[in-house]
Structure formats: C-alpha cells, structure tokens
Amino acid sequence: MDEGGKVAQDVDMGELPMAEHTDLHAATGASLAGAAAGAAAASAAAAAPAGGTPTAAGAAGPAPADFCVVAAAPASVTATPWASAPPAANAAAGGDIALPDVVVYLASRPGSPDAPPPAAGPPAVAETHLSVGCQVVGPFVVAGLGMVGAGLYLDMVQDWNVFVNVKEIIILVPSLLGLKGNLEMTLAARLSTEANLGHMDDAKEQWSMILGNLTLVQCQAIVVGLLSAVVALAMVYILEKEEFNIRHTMLLCSCSIITSSIASLVLGLITATVIVVSRWLKINPDNVATPIAASLGDITSLALLSWVATMMYDAIDKSYWISPVVIICYILVIPFWVWIAKKNKYTSSVLYSGWTPVVVAMLISTSGGLMLHKLLSRYPQMAALQPVINGVGGNLVSVQASRLSTELHQHSEPGTLPPGSQICITPSQACCSRQPHAMTAQVLMLLVIPGHLLFLSIISSKYLQRDALDLTPLFVVTYLFVAFFQVAILLYVAYILTYFFWKRHTDPDNSTIPYLTALGDLLGIGLLGISFEFLSWVGDDYAIAPEVPGAVTTLPP
C-alpha cells in the first residue's frame, strides 16, 4: 500500500487461491527488495499450498485459516508482516526454497471476519456523535447569530432611499450573500482538506497555499460580482419591462464589485486563520471553518452593500463618473490576480476548472433574489427571516460537503469510489445508516430545530420592541417544518453531488458547495414564501400582520 493507504499495484499470486481479490493489512511492514525478487518469491510461494507453512527462515508456522500467504509484493507495497527473512538468513537457511530479502505477509481472504478495512491517510481519531456535535455546535450558534444579525439589518435597511429607489439592489442581496457559499465556503473546504491531509504543516507551503487561494478568490469575486449585477439588471429590464437607466446600471455594477471584492478579502483572511488555528488546537477544520465563514459572511456582505450603495447613490448626481471609474479599475486588476493564481501550484488548475459551479450558483441565487423581491412586496416581515433560513441550511450542508470531500480524498483516488459506495442512495441510507456521513447528517439535523428556535426567539424579541405582532404558534410550527425539510433535502443532495463529482474526476471542494448553498437559497426563499402564502390563506395573524413600522410594503416601479 502507498502512504494514503490505497493498493498501489496488484500482486501476481500465481496459483494462490483468491489471491488477486485480497486486501493487504495496514501499511506498517518493511518494504520488499524489488520487482524481480518479488516475482521470484511469489512464484516460489505458489508451489506451497495456500495457508501452508513457508520454508524460509523466520517462518511463523501455519497461516491462520482465514488468511492466505503472500510471499512477496512490489517494492512499493508494504503490509503487516507475518514472517520475514533477511538476505543473510535466507542464504543460510536450508530447505527447498531460498527467498532473497523477502518479507512474508498475510492477506485476508475476502469475506473473512478478520479482514480489516483499508487504512488511509494519516492516523485519525474516530469521531462520534458527541465529538462531532461538540465541535459543530459552537460555530453553528455563532454563525446563526451572525445570520440573525444580517436578517435584522436587512429589515432595517430595506426602507433606505437607495433600496427604495434602486430596487434591483434587493435582487442582488441573495446573490451577494451567496458569495460566502460560492467563494469563502469553497475556500474553507479546499484549505480544510489540505490541512487534514497534512499539506499545511509546512509553514512555507502553508503561506503559498493561502496566498494563491486569496488571489484566486479575488479574481472570482470581481467577475462574479459584475456578472450578478448584470443578471439582476437583465431580469428587471426583460421580465418586468423596466426602462433602462444608465446611472442605476453603473451604480449597481460598481456596488456589487466593491462589496464582493472587499468581503471576499476579509472573509478569506479570517477563514485561513481559523483553519490554521484549528490545526494547532487539533480540531477538525471541516467542522468549524465553513460555519465561521458563514457567521461573518452575511452581515459583512450586507453591511458593505448598504454602506457602499448609499455613498455611491448620494454622490451619483454630482460625481456620476465615480461608478464607471470603479468598474474599469477592478476590471484592469483582474489580469494581475490571474497571473498570481496561475503561477501558484495549488490554484492553477482551479483557475480554469472552478468557474462553472460559481457562475451557475450565482445564476440560481439571483433567481432567488427576484423571488425575494416579489415576496417582500407582500410580506415585508420575511426580510428578517430570509438570511436565517438560507444561512442555516447553507451552513449545515457545507459542513457535510466538506467532510465528505475530505473523506474521499483520504480513502480513494478521483474517479474511484470507496469500496461499497455508490452515487445514488436512498434518503434513509444518507441519514440513518451507520456510515460516518450518516452520523454527521444525524448530528446536523438535530441542530436544526433548537437552532431555529433560538434564532426565532431573538427575532421575535426584536420585533416586539418595534410593536409588531408576536410569532404565532402556527407560524413557528410551519417555519420549523420547512426549515427541517430544507436541510434534509440539502444533506441528501450533498452526498449525491459529492460522490457524482468525485466519480467524474472533479474535486468536490471546488464544485459541491456553490451548488448546495445556491440550492439552499432558492429552497429557503421558496419554502418560506410558500409557508407565508399558506399562513395567509388560513388567516394566521403573523402572515397578515399590518405593516411593520419603517418597512416597505410596496416597492415603487
């Protein structure tokens, strides 16, 4: 086996029964002396019956019934030795067979109860429900509080002049908030995998990896920020037959680029720091990096968007040239970021292959933004809930996707699934089996209800201060149901997508999280809208609440 624990080369076992199907024990034995010596020893071993006693010096007696003797293997293959004979001992040994520099191994027969699973990667501590929960719950609560803050902030700023008069900005909100899934959470997943594989233990490699990934994220942030603004404008002008406004167009594009670039830089630095500290503290970064990125992503992006948009909007009449200059400057700096990312060995491949998931996810999130724009005109109280339900779903599924990707990197090669695995499984297999991924899914789903209850209580207390109606029991039950349903769907899709991309030789770290967080945004907005429609239909007080003071119930055309 190689250092990753995967079988490096099949061993020619001659006449040994079932030898070509055996799995060698964990890689802890001595290396053999070469292919020629290995082939000779294997041929000699073939003359002895399986399970028999080798005649070389150092033999340990008859092989156990559940094992067959493997006399030799290629030099790159190591296993737990059963008996060994160094060259001198072999030369001095009598008997019918002399084995030069050979280590005799045992290989478990297929189906044997003693057959161990293949070892993989550096030694890892087995995780339990409790250990995973303890590592996840803290970052999850912190992330949730950040999302609650973003929701309350969105509820406050939706009546600002720039949000009222440039209504396309509301459509931008899910797309820009989704950048944490498209870029920062993807960055967290990539660096977490590298850290778990031990590639960040060297300080020089660590800095090279972080620098390359930050430049890559800057390049992606500028492009995606510009594209999201263009798509939002196209949706408004085409679908709603709005009159084209060049100043609003320039304003939206410049605000989107500035917000995405600054937010990605700040969050990227924080994410890299969290992963490095996690390694020092012996904590699995897969469990904490993505929630931390999510905790600050929403509020950071939303605050930047509102402040930048307000300043640009106030200056647009006197200094209309500011927006075009900002756009041109950011476009001109893209080749510089591309050049750095291309020269970095850790990001050169992602620079070309990582665009499709990010762009598709942006399109999905922007579609959700158009849906949010329509729903907020009818249910302004949704503003405080939208970042929470979207963020919690994206947060939890990102933890699962990151862990699944790390497990695949440790136990198999791209294009090859671990033994006994398949792409399409049933929901019960994804969440209720005894596999590690199902254990993680169970822990994450257990966090949904208490987490949302905590976040709803904070939102409710804030609304009470504004003399709005309290959350009704029917609303709470309906909201918790759609939130749990959203997370269950996302966790199931996470398994399928991760294994699907791995089978197609695509790194899930760069592909799955953007799709999953974008799907989480679309599901969250859609399910939340359906719940409000249902509650309004049955006459629930919260869904048909009077206008919240300061909220915009109808956005102007």
UniProtKB/TrEMBL annotation:
The species this protein was found in: Gryllus longicercus
Record membrane topology: Multi-pass membrane protein
Compartments in which it is found: Membrane
GO molecular function: monoatomic cation transmembrane transporter activity
Protein name (record): SLC41A/MgtE integral membrane domain-containing protein
InterPro entries in alphabetical order: SLC41_membr_dom, SLC41_membr_dom_sf, SLC41A1-3
Segment forming the signal sequence: none
Transmembrane annotation, as ranges: 221-239, 251-276, 288-308, 320-340, 352-372, 443-464, 476-501, 513-532
Highest taxon, organism lineage: Eukaryota
Main location: membrane
GO cellular component term, pick one: plasma membrane
Keyword field: Ion transport, Magnesium, Membrane, Transmembrane, Transmembrane helix, Transport
Highest classification ranks of the organism: Eukaryota, Metazoa, Ecdysozoa, Arthropoda, Hexapoda
Sequence ranges assigned to domain SLC41A/MgtE integral membrane in this UniProt record: 173-307, 386-528
Family, per entry: Belongs to the SLC41A transporter family.
